[in-house]
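Final report, closing paragraph on structural work. Over the funding period we assembled a curated collection of sequence-structure pairs, and we close with a single example.
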Amino acid sequence: MPEAVTESPQVRRDRDTAITAGTIVCVALPSVVLLVMDVSAEWWTVAAWLAGTALGGAVLPFIYWAPYRALGIVPYAGVAWLAAVAHGVYWNEWPAWAHGIPLGVIIGGLARGRRGEQPPWEVALLIVAVLLGVFVAWKIREQGRPFDGAGWFVLIAAVGLVIWTVMRLFRPVFELACEPLLWMMYGVQQRGPGFAGFPSTGPCLVIANHACWLDPLFLAKVLPRPITPMMTARFYDKAVIRRLMVAFGVIRVPEKALKKDAPEIQEAIAALDRGECVVIFPEGYLRRTEERPLRRFGQGIWQILQARPGTPVFAAWIEGGWGSYTSYFNGPPTKNKRKDLRRTIGVGMSAAVNVPAELLEEHLNARIYLMNLVSNARIHLGMEALPVFALPEKAEDAENESE
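Its predicted structure, as stored:
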């Protein structure tokens, strides 16, 4: 088995983006300080406003619970900074708070979204950036017309920062933009020990029941890192959705009856090798009836774990999706149901487990074991687990359930 990396390419790219954006901020910050200090008010008043608002802005991203999506705050703060700088260039007004808050949010968002220890070369890069910014600010001051030179310098830096970070941090920016809509429709609550010990990096599998179309979004909402879910070709191949799914690294699942040689299995294994968090709904089927909340798991999850047996598995139960606007309750999704408004969704997650090697020798044993794990995750939501799933008594029953 190839050794799994600690960071996925997506996370590593966003991390590199954070480093570069932080460098840009460090270069521009001394000029911003120069601009807001060169006003008619007493310098200590301006300094206090600049430092205080920047400190307050830097704290805000740390209040937001998801470190990865905190990176998405950076471009939005960049837009605010851009507006403040454009206003200053045109009107020659440079209020300290208008620059302190967005710059603080940018710095805090970059720091919050960073992962792991800061390597020495990165520290050296930021120090050099600050020194370069101080030199530029000093030269602008020496010219005697700080608003002309420094204003355009900071404006260009702000425009570059916004455009570049939006392009490079598209996924956290998009996910953050969708959160208000998701909040209006659903109140997603998380419970269980799995969340407390959820790894910030490295490969892992999240398995859950599947009651409505939006189950992947509910999991994405409560997990602290980007996920790699699967999506059927029926939805994946739609023009607009496909572009987003490719950008987010979603695994396409072809629609076919037999999946013994399914390419999505190999893609999921490759995603684990890249250190990603792969989300799977092992039923491979959206819930259809009230009487059967959980169907027999397919062989796909067994094939993945058989190929990568040491992968930690987090079992989750999503409650509240059945009966929602995108479920099959009382008819097909979006039919015969009211649109959801602050509907309560509970996500219970158990601590990670490593599936015993002896269970992975036979697919039915592994599938039944995983079904019971998902069923037991209901306990974290204050519900009773479903009746214990067991192996079929007859061989022909096993064959009927094997697909």
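The mean pLDDT is 85. The first helix runs from residue 9 to 37. We thank the funder for supporting this effort.
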